[in-house]
Amino acid sequence: MKQTECTTILVGKKATIDGSTMIARSEDGGRVIIPEGFKVVNPEEQPKHYTSAISKQKIDDTDLAETPLRYTSAPDVSGENGIWGAAGINSENIAMTATETITTNSRIQGVDPLLDPAEGGLGEEDFVTLTLPYIHSAFDGVKRVGYLVEKYGTYEMNGMAFSDKDTIWYLETIGGHHWIARRIPDDAYVIAPNRLNIDEFDFDDTDNFAAASDLKDLISEYHLNPDREGYNMRHIFGSSTIKDAHYNNPRAGTFTTTSIQTSAALPDQDQPFICHANRLISIEDIKWAESSHYQDTPYDAYGDQGTPEQKKTFRPIGINRNFETHILQIRNDVPAEIAGVQWLAFGPNTFNSMVPFYTNVTTTPESFQTTPKFNLNKIFWLNKLTAQLGDTNYRVYGELEDAFEQKSLAQCHKIQHDTDKEVKGLSGKELQDKLNAANQLMADTVYNNTVELLGQMVDEGHGLMTLKYDLLD
Predict the structure, then answer these.
(1) Mean pLDDT value of segment 88-103
(2) Is pLDDT above 50 for 410?
(3) Which of 6, 77, 328, 400 is catalytic?
(4) Active site annotation includes 6
(5) Minimal CA–CA distance to 229: which of 206, 202, 204?
(6) Tell me: the pLDDT tens digits for 10-58?
(7) What is the b/e burial string over 431-459, where b = at least 16 CB atoms within 10 angstroms of the residue's CB?
(8) DSSP secondary structure string, 59-90?
(9) Is the omega angle on the peptide bond into residue 99 within 30 degrees of 0, that is, cis?
(10) What SS3 state is found at 250?
């Protein structure tokens, strides 16, 4: 098992600053570092026969028979526990992020228990590989995962999101063989932590809601609904625990001003799933949210407002266990051939910068093809090093990181704007070669900026070392 803590952010096309759809997630893990990479899976590389590494679940070849699409992914580079594709965009500009580990309760587990992985079933390890190369719309992703869960079952509770240029759908698995999904309104956003997140649900509105065919009857037969009216899926299938109050709910903040406002001081168990901002949301807003550690509140581990106890009260979004973070953007103001962009960063989000990679490519930059062992030629490991050094004195190193991130984002935006103009009218291999070159330039730029940041941190930290003596010869 691996990624157990993540934070998903979804933003509809009328809620974003440029009219694109955006789905994002920080892929977090536990105490052991899980090196993540960036890979393009070309059609000939897609498995023709599939067996899960963890559960040994075999997938019928007929469920893999379609001609697969090319897609990007952010897999575990060791491969020891399977692929764990995490997130990507396929060649038809359909995006998928999977998965957000979510909660459940004993009532549904008594009706439809999760499978024992020793007996089969699917999990986070499998979903991107078995879904993304076979879907042609966001709702196709819902139908595909729903089919897989009903047929093969699952041994864990997961949330996942799908997007195309117009729509975003969020799906959550329910028990061993059931699922629910909701379309995110175009003018809305969602911040989903590690709990069952979908709340209000309308079985009759099939344009905006979907579920396993027998789910409504199952709720009635087993008396699972605690509400007198309507259906709130979080009440029916989710949890409402002390852990949720401290670990999950504080991360579900709101975009109400120029920065995310956390609800850490009010760990409400009934925070709404669908939210609306008072302004349009940018890539920088999402990155800021994914980097949040409750700045300017008593709950900030790096701050000076709270007590030692308060600083440990709530789980931040930006945390040492961020191993990979992505924003999957499908743009609506450019040709389809360059519309898909996978913004990607490795390591703790408080100390890294996103890179906007074009996804209509056949390969990825070498520095983002992570090695399992420590290697400073790979930006995953370089980011881990700057984060661990930065953590020793955030007051000193935090300003250096902020300047690094602003510089890197500005340079990547400039390369992207220039490339969008330069590739007009190009197609096929000529276009892909240009996009590969742009991706390489952005990767090199951010890698070199990170090396420069590390040098600045060493310079600043030299005089702050404990092992020193002020009297000089």
Answers:
(1) 97
(2) yes
(3) 6
(4) yes
(5) 202
(6) 999 999 999 999 999 999 998 899 999 999 999 999 999 999 999 999 9
(7) bbebbbebbbbbbebbbebbeebbebbee
(8) EPGGGG-SPPPPEEE--BSS-TT-----EEEB
(9) yes
(10) helix
